[in-house]
Amino acid sequence: MTAELVRGQNHPLDRTRLEIRIAAGGPVVAGATLADEAGGIPGVEAVAHPGAPRRTGIEVPRQAAAEHRIAVDLDALPAAVHRVSVLLALPVGVGGPAAFGAAAAPFVSVTGLDGTGIASYTLTDLGAETAVVALELYRRQGAWKVRAVGQGYAGGLAALLQDQGLPQAAELASEIQEAVRSGHARSVPAPAPDAGTGSRTDTGSRTDTGSRTGTGSRTGTGAALDAGPAPEAASAAGPVDYRHPKRRTPSPPPQPDSPAPAAPTAAGAPPTAAGAPPAAQGAPTGPVAGDAAGRTMDERLYNQVWGMFEDLARTVAAYRSAMDFAQSRLAKELDAVNADPRNRVGAAAGAARAAAHDKHARLAVQAREVLDRDLAQLTAEAEVVEPALPPALAAWSSPVWQGYRAAEEYPTAVRLGDLRLPECPDLRIPMLVRLPMDRGLWIDSGQPESSGSAGAHDDGFASAFGLDGLDGGQDADGLPDAAEMRRRAVDTAVGLAARLLAAHPAGELTVQVIDPAGAAASALAPLRETGALREPPAAGAQGVTAVLGELTRRVDLVQMAIRNQAAEDLPPDLDTAEQLLIVHDFPHGFDDRAVNQLRYLADEGPSVGVHLMMVADRAEAREYGPVLDPLWRSLLRITPVPDAYLADPWVGHAWTYEPSRVPEGSRVLRQVLGGLAEARRAQGHSRTRER
Fold it and tell me: What mean pLDDT comes out for the span 148-177?
């Protein structure tokens, strides 16, 4: 869970390879200073900035933009470095707010390389400051911590660097601003002199460290529209670069109606994105599957899909921001016309209103054109990536399942379903979770409320069901009835269990089921008949007690073995394979002791290979009161029908989740489970011969 810091608060760091993610209300310059134990900075060589982005153990972006990522490897820092201060400054001469107080408060978060949140800090109460020390990473008694600082400087970057103890503060500040202003440090084409075009250039650009900058800015596109550039000027920035961090292939080619590429830089050479070879070197011109960073193809594809998810989040955020800006500008101009009673009527007032509406329409069209261009690039990438996904990441409809063979190694991740946004309903991004899963799943079997209703679940998200194309078992409002929701929930659980089994090497995942009333017998048939369930589903209160007691004992024993480094002392009858427990129709058949055991398994199980999948009606579970809240919040909620309730960590979009469903009438699930059964039998025969 991410710690939300306030000014002056610190938090321990549990890893040494980090990313510092920055989101601001306009373009900012990001940098860092490396100080010794006494807080002193030896010289300019201890400052990472756009003109010199790489220092030992740290790399910062090369440009001014609304969003940044800074890569930090604490183990690689020089031994003398005890403090890393993260700096933000407003660029001079490239557009944007005149002070931090004139834009949305900057947000800074410290994450792992996989995006796992560690700590975050919103820099509130800034006013006339144009530079700020956002946070610092510091070493204390051999351990690293992060502290929220938020120290602002109205004197700008020079005053900040001087306060940090740098003798050449003024010269270095001038050098940094000149590098940003001239575009020499940019990894995207330098902006045209027009301020609006400069803002446009920031939208969607990236640093060579993999920063996804500007697309998700809530004001970047709005700033471009506010400047009112002509369409030809706005398009001079060129298409958005949609390469994931560390990608080595260039962006997709522009569509026939796309803007022309940017003009050459002052040096006379056409600008290229960081890491992309010139076209003259024969580089491919279209999207390529697996072009993200990673040691294996599975990991590269996972990172590429994750990058597509981030890109879609940010480009839609930019579009929504632009539309909000256009609407607020229209309202402001109409208010100005109506402010003076003497000018509310007449030809002049009518012309002013018409001009305001025309301007709003132009801005809306301009914003939609940018969005459509970005979506076209993402769609082209999705069409290449989807067919290349391995079984663990592929949809059930993918042909890759027809040639499925039991996995020999653990994959990077597994697919739970798809995600989409209302602005682009046809573009679906696979929802992938890393393996092993660090949290269980709650599949909500409760009956949904009417479409667009909010507060159906108390998990902090609005519940808005988009159920187009659902068949059968629906009430008068076109929503699934209670029985149909329960059926779909258990079908979703069976499908996800089959996916997890298929993702693991044969025999490395054991599935157990608790079905107190036996209500899921029909849905569980594929697991039972193919031998994926080694034991019949546990029924009744005795069955619930036995299974939960066995798994609780397993967690305790494995934890003790790990602590004492005595894995060889585990009982010989202990199943060392990872465990997946499916609990159906919860809370029926569970007493208080069983509920506490479930909470224990949800909290402690994932770290020792015990995973929980609950099929439950949240409304019925509320009968237990607050005792179940920790369990509910520790699990990842998914639904058996499309539902807009998942929020991304960057801009907070409500994503519509669609479960991974086996096509109607397809036997692919049974074929996969049958193949796993054969692999287990072959594995057993091989072990017998070895003996």
Answer: 90
As a whole number of Å, the CA-based R_g of the chain is: 28
CA 82 to chain centre: 31
DSSP classification of residue 21: E
Q: Any idea where the domains of the chain sit in the sequence?
A: 1-186, 435-663
pLDDT at 479 over 80: no
Any residues with CB less than 8 A from the CB of 151 and at least 6 apart, and which?
132, 133
Percentages of the chain per state (helix, strand, coil), in multiples of 5: 40, 20, 40
Residue 582's CB: how many other CB atoms inside 10 A?
A: 26
Q: Are 303 and 294 in contact (CB under 8 A)?
A: yes
Residue that has been written with the tokens 């997946």 in this structure: 580
Q: What 3-state DSSP class applies to 542?
A: helix
DSSP for 637-663? EE-SS-EEEEE-TTT--EEEEEE--PP
Distance between CA atoms of 223 and 322, rounded to whole angstroms? 8
The Cα-based distances of 449 to 144, 471, 477, 480 in angstroms read 47, 17, 10, 10
Closest by alpha carbon to 451, among 645, 615, 618?
645
How far is Cα 678 from Cα 530, in angstroms, rounded to an integer? 9
Question: pLDDT of 332-364, one tens digit each?
Answer: 999 888 887 777 788 888 898 999 999 999 999
Q: In what order do the strands lie in the sheet with 441-444?
A: 509-514, 578-586, 610-616, 441-444, 636-638
pLDDT at 111 over 60: yes
> CATH topology for 435-663?
Rossmann fold (3.40.50)
1-186 placed in CATH 2.60.60.30: yes
Task: Answer whether 585's CB lies under 8 Å from 615's CB.
Answer: yes
CA 589 to chain centre: 37
Q: List, in sequence order, the alpha helices (H) in 183-278.
A: 195-202, 220-227, 231-234
Contact 188, 273 (CB under 8 A): yes
Q: What is the pLDDT of residue 669?
A: 92
453 pLDDT exceeds 80? Answer: no
Contact indicator for 189, 273 with CB cutoff of 8 Å: no
Name the pTM for this structure.
0.59
Express each pLDDT in 521-532 by its tens digit. 999 999 999 999
Compute the distance between CA of residue 287 and CA of residue 308 in angstroms, rounded to an integer: 12
76-90 mean pLDDT: 93
Structure tokens at 283: 């580089």
Cβ-based neighbours of 117, under 8 Å, separated by 6 or more: 1, 2, 109, 110, 111, 649
Instruction: Note whether 419 and 646 are within 8 A (CB).
Output: yes
pLDDT digits (tens, 9 = 90+) for 490-509: 999 999 999 999 999 988 99
Cβ(94)–Cβ(201) under 8 Å? Answer: no
Contact, 327 vs 321, CB < 8 A? no
Dist. CA 620–CA 628, nearest whole Å: 11
Regarding beta strands 117-122 and 107-112, do their DSSP bridges make them parallel or antiparallel, or are they unpaired?
antiparallel
Does position 272 have pLDDT exceeding 60, yes or no? no
pLDDT the model gives residue 473:
43
d(CA 390, CA 293): 17
pLDDT: which is higher, 649 or 313: 313
Q: Hey, is 86 helix, strand or coil?
A: strand
CA dist 558 and 562 (Å) reads 6
Stretch 663-679: mean pLDDT, rounded? 90
**Res. 579: pLDDT tops 80:** yes
Query: Mean of the per-residue pLDDT values for the chain?
Result: 78
